[in-house]
Write a structure and sequence with these properties.
By secondary structure, this protein is of the alpha/beta class. The longest helix has 18 residues. The strands form 4 sheets. Strands 1, 2, 3, 4, 5, 17, 18 and 19 form an 8-stranded mixed beta sheet that branches. It has a 6-stranded parallel beta sheet with strand order 9-10-11-14-15-16.
Amino acid sequence: MIFTAYTNARIINPVTNMDEIGSVFVNDGRIVDLGAGKNMMADARVIDCTGKILCPGFIDMRAHAVDAEAAAAGGITSIALQPDQKTVLDNDAAIERIVKRSHDHGGVRVYPVGAATKELKGSEIAEIGQMQASGAIAFTDCRQSINDAQVMRRLMEYAKYFDAPIVQFAEEQSLAKDGFAHEGEIATRLGLNGIPSAAEAIQIERDIRLADLTGAKLHIALVSTKEGVQIIRNAKKRKSLNLTCSVSPHHLYLNDNALEGYRTFAKVSPPLRSEADRLALIKGLADGVIDTVVSDHDPRSEDVKRLPLAQAASGVAGFETMLPILMTLVHSDKISMMTAIRALTENPAKILGVKGGSIEKGSIADITIFDPEKPWRIDNSKLKSSARNTPFDTLPTQGKVWKTIVAGKEIYSAD
C-alpha cells in the first residue's frame, strides 16, 4: 500500500481551527492521518511542503464555464456551474448530462446549479425536485433577479420542501434597466448609464422578507454595495433566517475608477462600485457577514470585450486570480488567513452541501497547496483560461497555487 505524505506543511483547516506545521497522509483518495509529530510511514511517497500552506480544496460557488485546466491552476477542486449554458440547465436531462461529464472527466468536480425558472425567464418555476434528484445542488436565475415577488415566494416554498438553497442575483430589474456602471461620479463624468445602489438594496430587502415568510434557504450572490452588506448584517442577527451571501475578488479589489479610460475588461455585473462600497465589502468579509468568495469565472473573447463600453460583454476570467487577489487582503492585514480559507472551503461546502471543505481523518482528499509568499505578476498571456479577459493583467501579486489534488489525485502542479 503506497501512501503520499505531504510533510512540513502549514496545515490550515477552518472546520477544526487547525493551524499548525505538520504532515498529511493520503491513501486511496482519503486522508488517513494529519497533524504535527506524526510518524513517517515507511513506504510513503514524500512531498516536502516547506513554506507552503495546505488546506481543503477551494470550492467555487459561481462559475459560468467548466474551464477545468484554469480551475485546477487556481487551486479549485469543485465548481458550481451556473445554469446559463448554451443549453439552459432547467431540466433533469441537462443536469444529468453535466453530472455524467464531471464523473467521466475525473478532475475538478463540477456540480450543476439548476435554473430556478424555466429558460431563466423568471415567470414559471422549474422542476426543482427532479433536477435535485438528478444532481442539482442549488437553484438560481443566474445573471438576473427573479423580480416577480409571487414567483419568488412560490419558488422559496417549493425549494424549502426539498431543502434546496435559492441563489438570488440581487438587482431590481426596472432600476437597473439599460445600466452597466455604478451610478456615481465616474459614470456621470464618462457618460455611462448607471445602476444605483438602491437596485441591490431593494432586492435584498424584499427577498429577506420572503425568506422570513417561507423559511427557505436564501443566498445573495455577488453583494456589491455598502447598503447591501448592512442589510444582510442586520438580518443575520435574526437566528431564524437561513441567509448567506458571497462576494467576488474583483469587487474586493477594484472600484469604479477601473472604468476610467473606458476599460471594458473592468465591465462586470453587478458593476464595480465606489470606494466606500469596496471597503464595506472587505469589512463584511472580515467580520463574517459575507460567507464566501466566488470567482464568477466568465471567460469572454476579445471580440465581445473590445467594444464600446455599452456594447461590451460583462465578465472576467476569474479562476486563476481568485487566490492572489484575496491574498492582497491577507498581506495587508484586512482579513486573516483563516477567514480567507474559510470563505473558499468550509462555508461554500456547508451552503451547497457538497463534498470537501475540510481535511480530517477519513475525509476525501481534496486539497490545495499554495505558497502565500510567492511573488508573481499576473500575465494574461499565460493564463490557462479559455479566454483572458482579466482586469488584473500586469498586476504584481503575492501568493500562488502550487498543487491541486482531487480525491488524492494531483490535477495541477506548478513544478
